[in-house]
Amino acid sequence: MKLQAAHLVVCTALREAFAQLRAAGVPSHTLAAELLLLHVLGRDRTWLYAHPEEQLSSADADRFFALIVRRAKGEPTQHLTGKQEFWGLEFEVTPDVLIPRPETEHVIEVALDRLALRELRSGRKQTLTGEGLQIADIGTGSGCIAIALAKELPGATIYATEISFAALAVAQRNAKRHSVSERIHFLECSLLDKVSSVGARYMVPLRSQGANSELRDSPVTSRKSLLLGLIASNPPYIGRREAATLMREVRDHEPEIALYGGEEGYELYAHLIAQAAAHLKPGGILVLELGHNSLPAVQPLLDAPAWTNVGVTNDLVGIPRVIAAERL
């Protein structure tokens, strides 16, 4: 039975939305419906449950159920609301970027723990600000890793690389939203290709100013070779052979370039680790997110003489999620 929009109140609208999403097999259907209604109304969850009998306008009801229909067809909630929380910060997300996942927060945790341990071993004060630290975030996507690190390490300079120009545009908007755009330099390239020999000189794409693929120097023109203190990355790590097993929200709506790391899923790690070895200074830290079955293929790559203090961190369900190592 179709409900009359003119007579809908909050609790009735939610019950109907719960039923539609549950029937469509949408995971976490209750949360999805609540988030979509909050998005339409511009309210928070406290208001939602304090006003269950609040009547919806016809326009709001129509907008809400139009979004419910799209969610039932598989569009991610984050694409419908245009946002996702990560590290306590709200990020803009679009179909051009991977939706930030909670498990990626382990990358931030491990990076900060490793940096703090390095300070402790060096006998320096435990006031970790990142002063003078040069960081690279490889495959930045929405910018969530780079921006979270910039917020935690206000003295650090960060180079965020991304092969997708459309994704870079989202990351740049997120950096501006969180007031860290002056300390994050975005580079349109594969892995660390354009970080080579950059030093204090950095390059930015001119497409945002109407050009196609040219690069320009910043006003800073030092030509010293850049050696990084930290490299972090959540690289594409799903195997194309696994595509059919993915949730439709992921398979049909998130960017393939951010999902698939080759036929097996771990092919990019060898190139990434080799480049990291060339760009990290002695004692520099590498922190990589892993796919659910990546560890056996990735860990041997860090058994090379260039690396020491290799460690693996499990996520909350016990899956090896982050591998970290230090450059000798």
Number of strands: 11
What integer is the average pLDDT?
90
Strand content: 15-25%
Q: Which range best describes the helical content: under 10%, 10-25%, 25-40%, 40-55%, 55-70% or over 70%?
A: 25-40%
Poorly predicted tracts of residues: 199-223
What does the radius of gyration come to? 22 Å
Protein structure class: alpha/beta
Order of helices and strands: HHHHHEEHEHEHEEEEHHHEHEE
Form type: elongated
Number of helices: 12
The profile of the biggest β sheet is: 7 strands, mixed
Cα end-to-end separation:
68 Å
Provide keyphrases for this structure.
11 strands, single chain, alpha/beta, 328 residues, two-stranded antiparallel ribbon
Describe the 3D structure.
With 328 residues, the chain is an alpha/beta fold. It is 35% helix and 19% strand. It contains twelve helices and eleven strands. The strands form three sheets. The chain has a seven-stranded mixed sheet. The chain has a two-stranded antiparallel ribbon with strand order 1-2. Helix 1 crosses helix 2 and helix 2 packs antiparallel against helix 4. The longest helix is centred in the middle third of the chain and has 17 residues. It is elongated. About 8% of the residues have low confidence.
Outline of this structure?
The protein is of the alpha/beta class.
